[in-house]
Amino acid sequence: MTRIPHHIQLELFEDRPSMRWRDEEPPERGLMIRDPYVTDILLGKKTWELRGAATKIRGRIGLIKSKSGHVFGEAEIIDVLGPLSLRDLLMSWQIGPHDREELKLAERVPYLDKNGSSRTFAWILGSVVTYQPPVPYRHPSGAITFVDLRNALEI
User: Fold this and answer.
1) Per-position DSSP letters for 74-106, written without gaps between them
2) Separation of alpha carbons 72 and 135, rounded Å
3) Judging by DSSP bridges, how do beta strands 70-81 and 146-148 pair with one another?
4) Beta-carbon neighbour count of residue 124 at 10 Å?
């Protein structure tokens, strides 16, 4: 696993050793994650990706920085917890600094159903690997949460 010092920004990876896939093949799908949340995952500051629904998907996924056109690393979806309360989230070290800041400002969970109950789930990530350099891909039309990487990677 590649550990990135906290003071290094993702755009400044030219001096770091090249790292492609943890296994022989790239992950079959990639998860779209906005920045700074994907950076928090890659830096080891966050292991819970907060989402408005559970997922049955487990195993290796690419970590795509939204709107970048690049896969910045990979992780494994290990499990899903939820729905979670605001207290559950604020008591957890796994959510990362940017999530914590947003939760404190909003004073509520990020995803609610029409009755005001939590629909916030933690997708538990592990085995994070950072790609050096990030790998370009073609974003398919209509992909919002997951991208099928089998034919989208530009390698």
Assistant:
1) EEEEEEEE-S--HHHHHT-STT-HHHHHHHHHH
2) 7
3) unpaired
4) 17
pLDDT at residue 12 tops 50:
no
CA-to-CA distance for 52 and 141, rounded, in angstroms?
22
Which pLDDT score, from 0 to 100, does residue 116 have? 95
The single-letter code of the amino acid at 4 is I
Which of these, 104, 118, 149, 115, lies nearest to 50 by C-alpha position? 118
Would you tell me how many other CB atoms lie within 10 Å of the CB of residue 140?
A: 11
pLDDT at 149: 92
For residue 29, give every residue at least 6 positions away whose Cβ sits within 8 Å of its Cβ, in sequence order, or none: 57, 61, 62, 146, 147, 148, 149
Nearest partner of 64 among 98, 41, 87, judged by Cα: 41
For residue 6, which of 35, 39, 47 has the smallest C-alpha distance?
A: 39
Contact 19, 131 (CB under 8 A): yes
